[in-house]
Amino acid sequence: MAEAPRAEPTNAACPVPLEAPPDAAVRVSPDGGVLKVVTQEGAGDPPVLHARCLVHFVGRCLPSGEVFMDTKEESQSGEPYVVVAGRNTANRETGLNLAVASMRPGEQSLVYITDPEYGYGAKGSFSFPSVPPAAQLVYELSMLAWEPPAEEVDRRSMLYEERLEAAERRKAEGNALFAAGQLTEALGKYAMALSYCDEDFMLQLSGPHLDKAEAVTNPVFLNMAAVQLKTGDYATAAHNATQVLMRDPKCVKALFRRAKARAGMGRTGEALEDLSQAALLDPEDKAIQRDLASLKRTQREEQSATAKLFRGALGPAPKPKPGGGIAGAGAGAGAGAGAGDGAAPDPAAPASSGSGGERGAGAAAAAAGGGGGGSSSSGGGLLQRLFALLAALVAMLRSVLQRPAPVPAGGAGPAAPRLLPALGAALALGLAVGVGRAHATPAPPALPGPHAVVESVGLAVDGARASLAALQSGALASVSAAVRGLQSDEVINGALADIGSGVHGAGTALIETSATRWEVFAYRLSQLLALPAYGKVLTVIAFVAPVVLLGALAYQRAAGATWGEALKRAFALTVSLPSSGHSVESNSGRVAADVVLHILFLCHLLIVSVVLGGAVEDITTRVAQVRSSNGPVVERKHTLLLNWSNEAVPALEQLILARKELGAAAPHGALVVLADKAKDELDAAVEGLRASGVPVVTRSGNPTLPSHLARVAASHADTVLLLWPGGDDEATACAQQAAVLAALSSASGRDAARQRVVVQSAGAHTTDINAAKIAIEAARSAARRDEVVSLSTSGSERTGQIVAQVANQPGIEDVFADLLEYEEGEAGAEFYLEPTPAHLEGKSYQFARRCYDGAVLVGFVDGGGALTLNPRDNAKVPPGARLVFVARNEDAVVPRDAPYPTGKVKLRGRASSAAPARNITVLGFDGGADVTDTVKALAEFSGRGSVITLVTKSPDVAALRKIRARGVAVRTLAGCPNSRALLASRDARLDAADSVVLCGLAGREAAAADMQVVASVLQLQALAAAQPKRAAPLAIVATLGNAETEEVLWSATLRHHNERRAAAASAAAAAAAAAEAKGKKAPPASAPVAPAVSLHLLRPGHLMGGMLAQTACAPQLSAVFKELFADAAGAELYLRDPAKAFRLPPATELAWADVVEAVRKRGETALGVLLAPRGGALWPEARLGLGAAERVALGPRDRLVVIAAE
């Protein structure tokens, strides 16, 4: 019997002696508890006491060799581990500190901790790292560099600029050492530079701050890779180059150095990929081209060597062994199986020679060959030959799986499998023998056992894979020759001999991994599932063939049918459907025959399910490949969105809704996105939009490159939306937009139609940057046919202005949403632009506005593009002007031939429209420009006498001092905005506050920012409910990123209000019961409980996206949005008290035409009404664009929505 393979010890791959410290170990500690063996000498001086040392190490437990910590694996960015030299404290790694104190930069040593007290002690460590109690340790320790203790500064206490400056200083020192050829010292300085920009530090950065930090760390990683290429440390060099490519995938230098490192490791294919990509990015670099050509030659040489290794694998068939027939084939198979054992078999030896397993294989084959009554050599026993073939294959496989793995001479590894494609030839032989010879056969042999059947099927599947390999390697001719020579027993014998050799080689490769039979089967199955479609088809055929043959044989034996009838029945039932005329019930009346047919039908179901599953998988894969394609877009008259930001998805949503509401007036065609962002990220972002039925196509690319614009058919787009690129500073973003506009203007193949281009900016001041301004003006010039407009809707400045208006006029956010957003299933009002009818040109503005009884006229745009909002009634409508309306739909904008009649409106007394003074508390969580812009906007929009109190951890005093607003006081309170005690204090002025603004969350992820808003709202709600003197609900103004968060907040507020009402009702009932018990009069009913807070939640991205979508539909609306929402001067939206501002009688039904005239008497334009919450609702209702004949009854809490000058 063959000897079972000996299991290797678990620490066999460990390069460190684990039994005992080597004799060369020297003492580090006086008692010998810490020993050290230097494996590579260092240079320079050892660290002084308490110096800060940068090291890498692999720590193992003795004697098991189990790794408990590897610093390179723990730090993905390659950040070194910090150990203080000689520190003698309660630190459990005292031995490591002592060992580091004895090392020099660049030194590598093995440090043995033989006394556990110098390691993790008697108790060990059960957290991280996991070290058993009283464990002895060994460290593979590498010293990189060290700093004197005077420079040891807690990195956490250093400012951002200080860290970058220190890292730059260390990098410069490393560069100087590198230039001087001191590679080890340079590597230490580079590692020290990275220690200032560790993972914790980098994870806290974003935007420009992250870019500046990466501008320091990326060159350090590249320089470290250059050093390691010179020292031959290719694996670490590739790792450091990869760190740069994770941040900048287009870094040519990183690709070049990683390619050289991979080539040094022998990974030629991966190195070639890196160099090819580098050559595409920088085709002029001669060094890249030279190395690329050299690497291609190396790859060709490797392929040639591989081809020579396997050449002749399907050489001429060996001569048949003595014995003839299938018995001889079995003997040849045994001999072939023994041929892979490292020593060639003796050709003169008998067939029974060899190991026990081989003799068993040959005997089984011989028995199978002789079991047919001695007909093995006569050629007349078809079934005997077939089962002899299968039995020989099974016996050989069983023999191989019981053999230990042979090692060829020289210890170079396992011998290459020879003639593995012959397994495919065996399958072809079996099929041809079973179908090609149609002569009668004697009685069939006994059926093989279930185990042999299973192994036969498994072998046939493996043969299919080998057939595929044979087809790919040019072995088809050998298989065809074997099939054509089926009548010759010599061919069969020779094929079986080759099969024995091939099976032996395959089994040897698998036995080397000490795999069980099931592991072998699982491995082979996983390989089959990874095949392409044609490979899977061959696999199915390989499985079907033995099933049909064995099923036919079993049915013939069970039903007593002829071989032809049994084969036809088995094939029809296994491959085709039962409806083909072959049912699962036999005509013989034998139960065994019915069982065989049912088993064949179950096999049929399995085959069909596998085929369908494979087809569906291939189709799904193909669809996924098509969807992930980044090829050219073949579209015309489409809408193109360039760049990516937080407003991108809302803008696309609004464009889709605009099509449903405006029809042909909205931009049509597909929605195409081109952004410098990964394709899969773009697809994931727009996945929810594809259900709308509007095609949304994404492409990854650079919008500044004309070739990438041509890929999305930019020259044929009807509308182009150029978004403000998120994450860039203003100068870079403006320059990028200017480059995109220049690339658009130079696009070839322009359609004749005029193209609309909407450019989003981040503030009014950004148009002063020359690059963007010149590009926009050039695109607007008379020589161009395009209609280019700029719309300032991005940045914290614009968000701050909207927040400030809501804080001073709570409820106006509903007006903004109604005017700016298209909403699914809701009939809101929007702005419309319509040409002036001929009979209104030259007429007074009063005459023109009274000729529209279904919409509200708010101004006009003259032929030169100048906008006039809320003009005087005696102003003339210029010829060729376009009128600006607020209407519920486009059908409402229908002119009358003559003005509608109005009643006489008299205003009694002096009305007041001055903005009231308000107390506003601002909670600034993270500080920055977001907080400063919000406070500045609040000061601009607040009325005289207002007080703004800013609560933040670190107020920007210098920026706040620049805020000047007449009659508005700005105060600061340093502290945590989350502190309940601070908010409840007098200095926070929360008891006197009318509104609370939550800001300073722009730098956080959307989910994290929303969580902070929820927590703050719940806390403010509790504080406001505890203020007995509060007369009105505390207005909370906040921005959100997710609509679900808004629903959560509304639900929590409503629940809190209902609980307070229930508590008040319960208290009133208890008081009444107590009074009745005493015989006293019941106390009067208390006033209804008002909500503690009112929520005013904004989603700026959707508001800005709505403005972009409306501007895409009517570019001249950009002037309307600029004046209403961007410019501090000019007309704005206001909420007016009908009684105080216009002396309108409360609770009196009035015609809307009369209300409009009353508002016009004060020089303002009424857009609609904001009705206070009714019937227990918590939010108001905006009704804009009312018709002249509609009637309204305004209560004391209702407000009129007007456009008025500041």
Mean pLDDT reading: 75
Distance between the termini: 102 Å
Number of helices, where a helix is a run of at least 4 consecutive DSSP H or I residues: 38
Radius of gyration: 42 Å
- The shape, in one word, is globular
Helix content percent band = 40-55%
| Class from helix and strand fractions | alpha/beta
Q: Give the biggest sheet.
A: 7 strands, antiparallel
Strand content: 5-15%
Low-confidence stretches: 1-12, 310-514, 764-769
Q: How many distinct beta strands?
A: 29
What report would you give on this structure?
It is a single chain. The chain has 1206 residues and is of the alpha/beta class. 46% of the residues lie in helices and 13% in strands. It is built from 38 helices and 29 strands. The strands form six sheets. Strands 1, 2, 3, 4, 5, 6 and 7 form a seven-stranded antiparallel sheet that branches. Strand 9 (671-675), helix 23 (679-686) and strand 10 form a beta-alpha-beta unit. Helix 13 runs parallel beside helix 17. It is globular and about 110 Å long.
